[in-house]
Amino acid sequence: MLRPRVIVCLDVDEGRVVKGTGFRNLRDVGDPVELARRYEEEGADEVVFLDISASHEGRGTLLDTVRRTAEVLFIPLTVGGGVRTVADMGELLRAGADKISVNSAAVGRPELLTEGAERFGSQCIVASIDAARNEGAEAAWTHYTHGGRKPTSLDAVAWAEECSDRGAGEILLTSIDQDGARTGYDLALTRAVAERVSVPVIASGGAGSFEHLRDGLTIGMADAVLLAGILHDGLTTVGEIKDALAGWDLPIRQPARRSA
Fold first, then answer.
1. Is 130 among the catalytic positions?
2. CATH numbers and ranges of domains, the chain
3. Which of 11, 51, 88, 186 does the annotation list as catalytic?
4. Per annotation, catalytic residue among 13, 45, 51, 130
5. Which of 48, 73, 128, 235 sits at 20 to 30 Å (Cα–Cα) from 158?
6. Residues contacting residue 192 through CB under 8 Å, at least 6 positions apart
7. CB of 81 within 8 A of CB of 61?
């Protein structure tokens, strides 16, 4: 059984890391290269780099920024945003990405997931799912594309299962409702997806405390937890998070301690 992972997300807009609430009201929080380096030193297991405006603006991911970020990392780097073809995936992998996250283009042409998995391996393909709860429904969520701007006709849980069936090796599952609220992950959504797919699920959107991360891994049945805001704002560190999770007997990979 794989150890649960603590993953840091860098939402990038025009070459800068930003953070907002519900995918809106974005504010600048720093340089992606500097932040990636810091979070790896603190003990992050992986970094996710999402060019959040690429699909909306109809352009590709900023390759130079990806390349500079990858150069400072030894841990896995997932990159997404504006990925439309297998050729786009190849460019990002050559720029230093270890995994490719796909959302909008896969909705338009689901075969892209299969083509990417066949070309590069399922372990390289991450299906990014941005979901919002349907109004008045307790257990139904709609999948959104273009950085959470456009609703689709897809049920998010069923779409996650289809992505897995088509070759995605991992699901990056973000609750739009919880994003930036710091009130905890949407545990019902996370668990519903985890129970339907056979690949790892990353819980995203809403982390505000150590307990939220613990609940994402236990109640939500996630294989990894993704967070951003509480780290960007200096409220805690990856090392402190891992110490807290280890205190609950979760088999977290501890970072190497540097000697003085």
1. yes
2. 5-247 (3.20.20.70)
3. 11
4. 130
5. 48
6. 139, 141, 157
7. yes
Please check whether residue 5 is in contact with residue 241, taking contact to mean a CB–CB distance below 8 angstroms: no
Q: For this structure, is 11 an active site residue?
A: yes
Instruction: Write the pLDDT tens digit of every residue in 209-260.
Output: 999 999 999 999 999 999 999 999 999 999 999 999 999 999 998 765 544 4
The tokens describing 97, both together, are 């990405």
204 alpha carbon, distance to own chain's centre: 6
Phi, psi of 114 (to 5 degrees): -65, -45
The encoded tokens of residue 102 equal 């796909």
In tens, the pLDDT along 172-200 reads 999 999 998 999 999 999 999 999 999 99
- In single-letter form, the type of residue at position 191 comes to R
Neighbouring CB atoms inside 10 A of 136's CB total: 6
Query: Which structure tokens are listed for 244?
Result: 């807290």
Tell me the C-alpha distance between 49 and 70, whole Å: 10
SS3 (DSSP) at 108: helix
Question: Is the CB of residue 231 less than 8 Å from the CB of residue 213?
Answer: no
How is residue 142 written in tokens? 């709609």
pLDDT tens track for 56-106: 555 556 788 899 999 999 999 999 988 999 999 999 999 999 999 999 999
Structure tokens at 31: 């340089």
